[in-house]
Amino acid sequence: MSKIFVTGGLGAVGSFLVHELRKRGHEVWFCDLCHHYDPNYIRCDISHFRQLESVFQNHTFDYVYNLAAEFSRWNGEDFYENLWMTNVVGMKNILRLQERCGFHLIHTSSSEVYGDYEGVMTEDVMDKYEVRQMNDYAITKWVNEMQIMNSALMHETKSVRVRLFNTYGPGERYSPYRSVICLFAYRALHNIPYTVYLNHHRTSTYILDMTATLANIADNFKPGEVYNIGGTDYHDIKTCSDLILKYVKKDDSIVTYKESEEFTTKDKKVDVSKAIRDLGHNPKVTLVEGIPLTIEWMKREYDID
């Protein structure tokens, strides 16, 4: 079994990944921004080199999963200083320590790197076409990937990049910057108005399907590879809203419908065949199944009858 470090380990995906890796017998340490009770938890902001360096002065890791990031398109506009410091400077700090310590890195990138590309999103799109990222969040995620590729060329570091597609599910706590399913579910439960953009399509991925595949990378690590990790539900945004409203037994009187949202990718249709081949990716939970599971968790989390 391996000794593994997970950055962003208290986040929605990170917390499930820590649990999954431990269930498989790995020794897992993790960090995030607040204090925490777990004996293998280290408070650390990856954008501060001294804090990150102290982790690797005290531990030797086989694998590092980098999930620490400022998330979401509008969060990246409102808090752009945090976005660029965490996502870009934080990534550089990790790479400097990888060059020194030699651990294997698994970095979570985003489907947002595909920007304005209109076709099926295969991993080689970014190698074949000049793609324009649509916002600062997307730009930082592509910068991360370029940083990793440059480090591999200059220092022979060994990394795998994964592009996550619209992860949703239990564990994603509400804020105005979260995924559409989290936003719609929380607001529907609390009768808070929300907006649905009609001409956008997504490929949503249930969080446990996502983390199972992420954990598989430690068992089949192929340096230099990049993988799309997504679900099989290709749908418009209205479908999410309709399923949520139906489950909570409410009409759409709180919904405003608009044609599209500016500076946001319109369609994300993903090819996950490479992850299926190499990582045993097996998205099992459909949107029809996953949305009720998400809402029931949210009702417990926020004490809603």
Explain this structure.
The protein is of the alpha/beta class. Helix content is 42%, strand content 18%. It has eleven helices and twelve strands. It has a seven-stranded parallel sheet, with helices on both faces. It has a three-stranded mixed sheet with strand order 7-9-11. Helix 1 links the parallel strand 1 and strand 2. Helix 2 runs parallel beside helix 4 and helix 4 packs parallel to helix 6. The longest helix is centred in the first third of the chain and has 22 residues. It is globular. The mean pLDDT is 96.
Brief write-up:
With 305 residues, this protein is α/β, with parallel strands linked by helices.
Q: Encode the helix/strand succession as letters.
A: EHEEHEHHEHHEEHEEHEEHEHH
Strands ordered across the widest β-sheet: 3-2-1-4-5-6-10
Q: How large is the count of helical segments?
A: 11
Please indicate the percent range of residues in DSSP E strands (runs of 2 or more). 15-25%
Number of strands: 12
Overall average pLDDT: 96
The best one-word shape is: globular
Which blocks of ≥5 consecutive residues have pLDDT under 50? none
Structural class by helix and strand composition: alpha/beta
What is the radius of gyration?
19 Å
Give a quick account of the main beta sheet: strands, pairing sense, barrel closure. Answer: 7 strands, parallel
Cα distance spanning the termini: 43 Å
What share of the residues lie within helices?
40-55%
